[in-house]
Design brief:
Shape: elongated
Strand content: 15-25%
Helix content: 40-55%
Strand order of the largest sheet: 8-19-18-17-16-15-14-9-10-11
Number of domains: 2
CATH topology of the largest domain: UDP-N-acetylmuramoyl-L-alanine:D-glutamate ligase
CATH superfamily of the largest domain: Ribokinase
Distance between the termini: 15 Å
Radius of gyration: 26 Å
Structural class: alpha/beta
Number of helices: 20
């Protein structure tokens, strides 16, 4: 699903008008689509009290259409008109013909009527401003939103639903006005807007759903930013023929682990196994192999020489290369540590012995090592997926973390194109960027995934998909989606505090099963 900027959305709306889809038709589609989503969110809406905040522009018009349909379906709807609507507004006339209660904010002294209205409401729909509003909120509009925020604090069950986006959220940058509401749900129109997936805006959207308003999909075809969806993920999942053997599902070599980070090797290998890789071999230090073999029983092993107990020797790079012909993908970096020996191992494996003839997934200490090598991207010519968190990305790019986080999408795209690598910039709404300019963004922002080891699981998931034949970009995007959905499934059972990386492992096959059954 394409993700649009404000200008892209406006251009598409203009093209709709050119092909016979005028704004009033799109508005009718939008309002009805929003009403249908509200019905799904609230359940049985008959007799439910819904207050709709109506602004001056198209977002307010969409709100009027939604209010009309909700009223017709049995809801008790009240409109709070926060600014004057045009005298020829047909949608306002249609709600007035139905005797839907309309409260004029300019005549509501001290907003007393609004307070009474909110105290008896089950839900509030924010239809004040959409993609067109970028100026600071002030006056009556700010007061209205502040009142809704206070009402939510006093009545946690009050459901706040944003139409297209919460008013005061910049649809391009994700910047928010202080008065911007924390919505429980955002029903965005036609396509998701990029600002909904950028912090701090993403913290105020709640659950995002996209309602179809009749825009032909081909009009957005040139857009390169996409939201990863379940339907897309299912379309790229590796096939599982009935007559297959383990050789059909790829062989993965994982070079990981050190004395201080033994668990990283277990998590990475398990991630690859849980998404269906046929064979996973762990190449790790000889003293660590017996420890890991007692827990990681399904993997095979390539014991590597050590510089000292628990630290793989740089000379092991030769043995790794001698065995690469047996595998379809290589994961390097999880839990290797930053000792001099570990860094030399990474450099020897990637840059000195000879080129790695396999697709690479590089994580953690492999990335930290590269960051210390001048012009490393000129020497590493392999096809590779990098999976940095923001700190690792900052070190690789030689920029402050704040700069990475302030423009996550731009940072990932520039890096992918400059380094000719597929970049997975981890975090809330993980970004996957390809060297050719394509990007996919994860719909998931789950604080439960912010714990040690979840990144190792993700790297294992991605390399497992690469070994099964997916392109690097598809493997990275699908891996991020499966990992994120596993986190959501665990969160639904345990909450977002106390989730640990191993919780994800048994859930990954369930996510794949659910995708295959649902879509």
């Amino acid at each position: 699903m394409k993700i649009l900027t404000i200008n892209q959305m406006r251009q598409i709306e203009q093209e709709c008008a050119n092909i016979g889809l005028p704004p009033d038709k799109l508005m009718e589609n939008a309002g009805k689509g929003v009403a249908e989503e509200v019905k799904k969110v609230l359940g049985n809406i008959k007799k439910q009290r819904i207050s709709v905040l109506i602004g001056p522009g198209n977002n307010g018009g969409d709100g009027l259409v939604a209010a009309r349909h909700l009223h017709d379906w049995g809801a008790n709807v009240t409109l709070f008109l926060c600014s004057k609507r045009p005298s020829e507004d047909q949608n306002l006339k249609l709600v007035q013909e139905r005797s839907i209660t309309c409260v004029d904010a300019t005549k509501d002294e001290n907003l007393g009527k609004l307070e009474d209205l909110l105290s008896s409401s089950n839900a509030v729909i924010d239809a004040l401003f959409g993609t067109g509003r970028v100026r600071p909120l002030h006056g009556i509009l700010k007061q209205v939103l502040d009142n809704v925020s206070r009402a939510k604090g006093n009545q946690p069950a009050l459901h706040i639903i944003a139409l297209d986006l919460p008013s005061g959220l910049d649809a391009d940058t994700g910047a928010v006005d202080p008065a911007c509401l924390f919505a429980d749900n955002t029903i965005t129109l036609g396509f998701p807007k990029i600002g909904l997936l950028k912090s701090p805006g993403s913290e105020r959207t709640g659950k995002i759903t996209v309602t179809d308003i009749g825009i032909p999909a081909y009009l957005a075809e040139p857009v390169t930013n996409e939201l990863t969806t379940g339907e897309w993920a299912r379309s790229v999942l590796p096939r599982r023929p009935f007559d297959a053997n383990k050789g059909n599902f790829g062989r993965v070599l994982v070079v990981a682990g050190s004395i201080n980070y033994i668990g990283a090797a277990y998590l990475a290998c398990s991630g690859a196994l849980r998404v269906g890789a046929g064979l996973v071999t762990l190449a790790t230090g000889t003293t660590l192999q017996p420890i890991l073999a007692s827990k990681l029983t399904e993997a095979t092993y390539l014991p590597l020489p050590e510089s000292y107990p628990g630290i793989i020797s740089p000379s092991a790079a030769k043995l790794i290369h001698q065995n690469l012909h047996n595998y379809h993908a290589l994961l390097l970096g999880c839990g290797l540590g930053q000792s001099r020996a570990s860094m030399e191992l990474v450099e020897n494996t990637l840059l000195r012995v000879r080129a790695v003839p396999l697709p690479l997934v590089l994580d953690a200490d492999a990335l930290n090592t590269l960051a210390k090598i001048p012009n490393w991207w000129q020497r590493l010519t392999n096809d590779a997926i990098f999976t940095p968190h923001p700190g690792e990305m900052a070190r690789l790019a030689g920029i402050p973390i704040d700069e990475v986080q302030s423009d996550r999408l731009g940072t990932a795209k520039r890096a992918a194109q400059a380094w000719h690598k597929t970049i997975v910039l981890k975090g809330a709404h993980t970004i996957i960027a390809a060297p050719d300019g394509r990007t996919r963004i994860s719909p998931i922002a789950n604080p439960g995934l912010a714990s040690a080891g979840t990144g190792d699981v993700l790297s294992g998931v991605i390399v497992g998909l690469v070994a099964q034949g997916l392109s690097l970009f598809d493997a990275a995007a699908c891996g991020v989606f499966l990992h994120g959905e596993a986190g959501e499934m665990v969160k639904s059972q345990l909450g977002d505090a106390g989730m640990i990386a191993t919780d994800l492992l048994p859930v990954l096959p369930l996510v794949i099963k659910q995708l295959k059954e649902y879509f």
